[in-house]
Amino acid sequence: MAYIIVLMLCCVTLHGVSSSKHPCARVKRFDFHQEGYTLNNHVIVNHTTATAMDCAFHCVATPDCISYNFMKSEQSNNCQLSDKTRRSAKNEDYVQRQGSIFYEHSLEGCSASPCMYDNQCVESCSADGSYTCECDEGFTGKRCQHFAGTFKVHYPTSLASNYIQTTLDAELKGFTLCLWMNTTKLTSNLFSYVISGNPDVFRLSMNYSYLNFYIWGQNIGYIDGIKKRTVPLGRTLDAIPKGYQLVIGQGPSYQSSSYNNADSFEGEISGFNIWDTFGSSSRRIVEIYRGNGAEKGNVIGWRNLKTKTHGGLEILQGSPLESQERPTDFVLEFKTKSVENYVVYANDVPSMTKFTACAWYKTTGRGNLFQYGTSSYPTGAIHAFVRGSGFQFGINDGKKHIISISDLLNDLWHHACLQWQTEGQVTVYSDGDEESTMTDYMKWTVIEAGGIFIVGQEFDGYGSDFEEWQALQGKISQVNVWSFKLDENVIKEMSQSCSLVQGDAVTWSGFVSKIYGSVSIIKPAECKVLDDVVQWNRNAECRQKFTVKNSSCTGKILALFNRWSDNSGRMWGCYYSCTITWKPGIGNNLYDNDSPFNFCKTLAHEQLIQINV
């Protein structure tokens, strides 16, 4: 039998529990019990009792008691109180014993840390439990488990009067500090803590592309979840004393204790938290980087700084976190050719006099990538089809053209873009390269609004049936349409990985609600690096397992999603930097197919796409 024992404060005061807000009963629940077992070597008190219930009352009245053994005998019943549970004790201490029943207290109230996201727990005598969670703004639910979202503080201009200020109430002999920031200003102070006129006791500032962190002892720095440096700074201080002002967005100059406009922060800051622990695990740092902004430091908590702003700062709702799941981070897989398998765009398509339509795809056979049909152009206002001979397109029911491109059906990822404008110019890009440009094609026509946009099938008339041979079998992702011509450098950059940038006319996120047949959603999209942490870990995998034993292969080893050769699609591989060309203005590393060091690379697609954390 399980017991719940309540020792009321009004009846027994010796071991009653109370808090400043809730006079409360001491509650212990002995939900777990097991006959024929006893816990040895942890008995703190022995009693003689008539029943197991009496033994339970003794345990409730003893602060350190969290379990007990009740042993029946002809002379008297023995009640042994213990300060361990079967889980906290050694395995050999929990043994079988005839005539004994072991009872264990299930942690209740605040001792079980029930409140989520560092919200405050207080003891309670409520009917539905022995605790109450006092939820900060933005949190709801009994355990504060529902989070509505965080906020960010906008520094609109670089002014000395704009800052957040709070008092450091705890002495720090070690700490972990995290914050999010978004700025384009090259030099500014992120925060400072000045003691007796010393501006460099505790300060983080930006100097062009560098972060300067002044503190004592050892400095471990992470940026976007990646450890960037561990440096013994050679400066000693017993501790950072409490009682002084921590200022976010400002730092005093060396000549005076005042702030100046030139070094003031401009941009956005969010998630500023300080914990009193040094050297938090890399896993914990990554969790914060990928989190939802709900974490709260036990020394300085971001949620408590909302009322500490000065000057012209603006409180903006919403998360700055790039790590949150994007609605575009998925792949659609068409496992078989079937007229039953297709996806319809859920939103309206606008009228356009020019457009850029792009998609990622991976297939071994011919099939329709996407098609947009209207009542005036029933066989395709926009149409993209891949076949063994190349890329086929059509616009506004014009003549279908096939651009000869080899190896599109090699079960590798390929990126395709189709551009057109009403003056008649049409351009086809494959894997970032311009493959064909035509003029006078469907000149002075318009892409009409209000049609049907589908993925994976081709209709031969507006709303007509499908044919199986035209169905797509494979994977497709990032189908987007822009109502303007994208710059060729942007297309080149998009072909390097799934950028998750959505079109303004047709957005990839609009294809998830109307899926028909056996079409699967796969997350995440394998043609994309999830975040900097994943890229870092994939680079590490390359360094550990895919080195090339050749003295000519020099430089860093990077994991890149690139063409394996001139005619292949995109695959993940490990590349020495001597094989890579940096393209200014594009912002990506590109494999140089003309490099004399093309042997300094290793195909590792299947191994690298498994690394997603």
From TrEMBL:
<protein>
    <submittedName>
        <fullName>Pentaxin</fullName>
    </submittedName>
</protein>
<dbReference type="InterPro" id="IPR000742">
    <property type="entry name" value="EGF"/>
</dbReference>
<feature type="disulfide bond">
    <location>
        <begin position="135"/>
        <end position="144"/>
    </location>
</feature>
<dbReference type="Pfam" id="PF00354">
    <property type="entry name" value="Pentaxin"/>
</dbReference>
<feature type="disulfide bond">
    <location>
        <begin position="358"/>
        <end position="417"/>
    </location>
</feature>
<dbReference type="GO" id="GO:0046872">
    <property type="term" value="F:metal ion binding"/>
</dbReference>
<feature type="domain" description="Pentraxin (PTX)">
    <location>
        <begin position="328"/>
        <end position="528"/>
    </location>
</feature>
<dbReference type="InterPro" id="IPR009030">
    <property type="entry name" value="Growth_fac_rcpt_cys_sf"/>
</dbReference>
<feature type="domain" description="Apple">
    <location>
        <begin position="24"/>
        <end position="107"/>
    </location>
</feature>
<feature type="domain" description="EGF-like">
    <location>
        <begin position="106"/>
        <end position="145"/>
    </location>
</feature>
<feature type="signal peptide">
    <location>
        <begin position="1"/>
        <end position="19"/>
    </location>
</feature>
<dbReference type="Pfam" id="PF00008">
    <property type="entry name" value="EGF"/>
</dbReference>
<dbReference type="InterPro" id="IPR001759">
    <property type="entry name" value="PTX_dom"/>
</dbReference>
<dbReference type="InterPro" id="IPR051360">
    <property type="entry name" value="Neuronal_Pentraxin_Related"/>
</dbReference>
<dbReference type="InterPro" id="IPR013320">
    <property type="entry name" value="ConA-like_dom_sf"/>
</dbReference>
<dbReference type="Pfam" id="PF00024">
    <property type="entry name" value="PAN_1"/>
</dbReference>
<keyword id="KW-0732">Signal</keyword>
<keyword id="KW-0245">EGF-like domain</keyword>
<keyword id="KW-0325">Glycoprotein</keyword>
<dbReference type="InterPro" id="IPR003609">
    <property type="entry name" value="Pan_app"/>
</dbReference>
<keyword id="KW-0479">Metal-binding</keyword>
<keyword id="KW-1015">Disulfide bond</keyword>
<keyword id="KW-0106">Calcium</keyword>
